[in-house]
Amino acid sequence: MKAMTLLDLVRGPLFFWALMIMIAGILWRLSGLIFFRLQSRAAKPKDDAPIVAGLRTVALRSVPPHELEKNITFQHFTGYAWHIGWFATFLFLGAHLSLIKSILGFAWPALPNGVIMVLAAMTLGILLTLWIRRWYNPVLRLISNFDDHLSVVLTILPLFTGITAFTHWAPFGTRYETMLAIHILSVELLMVWMPFGKIFHVVTSLIVRFRTGAAFSRRGVKA
Amino acid sequence: MSTALVADYLRMRGVSRRGFLKFCASTASLMAMPPMMIPQIARALESARRPSVIWMPFQECTGCTESITRAHGATIEQLIFEAISLDYQHTLMAAAGEQSDDALHEAMQQNKGKYLLAVDGSIPLGNPGYSTISGISNIDMLKEAAEGAMAIVAIGSCAAFGGIPKANPNPTGAVSVSDIIKNKPIVNVSGCPPIPIVITGVLAQILTFGLEGLELDHLGRPKVFYGQSIHDRCYRRPFYERGQFAESFDDEGAKAGWCLYKLGCKGPTTYNACATVKWNNGTSFPIEAGHGCIGCAEPDFWDKGGFYDPLSVTDWGSTADIAIAAGAGVALGVAAGALARKGQNDARPAPEAKP
Fold it and tell me: Model ipTM?
């Protein structure tokens, strides 16, 4: 029997099972929510355009509410910044696009590695700042639970390990293949946790905003 | 062991003092030794008796032997290799049949405990008859020869790690030398085949300084040749840093010499000296010739996914696997939703009967 290296393990069976768990988990939670809420509507809707109302709510809830604007500006814009940086790193690094192409059969042009590295480093800095703030801000600390902290850590790890693997930075004399394996492993942990933790908002946030707006409009209420 | 000194042998071969010292300098440079070591190498080599080397090819393709004989022209490396008393190598030796067997046993008896055993090829354990020499199985021959050896040099990925014969499903039960021999120092010189100058360099190092100065990596390979990845020393590395990758073997990027990472190059995970000492007298190496590294110096390189799959590509299964996972997820979700609805309905108070 062959001894499997860590890289073989994470590129092979671990990635396969992480992907299967993520797909099954997303569809489990999504179909469960849809089926649970599926019901016939006896009352006549009070608004003729629930779709427009749903879209309007998606847009409105994507900007800070006027009443809270002063208090949440920092949180709001840093939130946008790291989300954009994180997804740009994921979706536009050449090495990632090779994987995406192998799964989807197509890909799109990559951004220059230098641009991605700057984005990744900025994103990592913002995420670390927000996490430290979560620990030090009394209100945020009070409302944060294990799920929040784990989700933040699992979001940070792929960025950190990705930067170390790409730059061949070996803080403990680790070889490139070990750093690459740790990076892929960190992504697999995120994939497995995604459907079950708060990171599931990646899938539900826009759907829920839309549904809330549409449902309120049927009842004649502005969301 | 031959009684002639290496120096005598070299003089007999017409090698000048100047040529000999040039070889010593290049050996020192190759081994990353300081220039002050050159006289020491020269003295050690001149005064060294020609050690007996017994080379045993087992389950192999003769590529390693081809490699070492492919050094161009009458290089000093070749002469040093000839200066070793190569007492048995059934591909290269003139003798055959019983004569070669006699030469082997004579060398083993006369040099017991002092000869260097070089092995290329893996050893099949599935059935002794899969690979034999003079009717003797490889494993019996290896054990007998290893018993009296000073050290073993496992030449090529087959001898070092099992190589291609060990590739899945390993029909012959192939194993490496180190899987069998546990009580002798073993130096692995991996590669499919290894670079000729790396083979001669390691033999020269052992001849000059013994095994003491030979620092090995965790896979038993000399760090001087296997200490850095091909990617680390690749001349295409700047293109990798900039994210300039060839997308196919004939696109503009390939013509411009961009990085071959996306075409499956295994340079980042392969440790060998290809990018520094190169092949064919330093002419080129696979990446310079336009093909990605296939990682032949690493264990189980044949089973590490497609040669043309980038390192970042993983085994994600198939669309059927994804469909099964999706189906299972939906089924679970519908069942969970139905249960939740039932629970909600059960919790509702029953509607009051109309008067």
Answer: 0.82
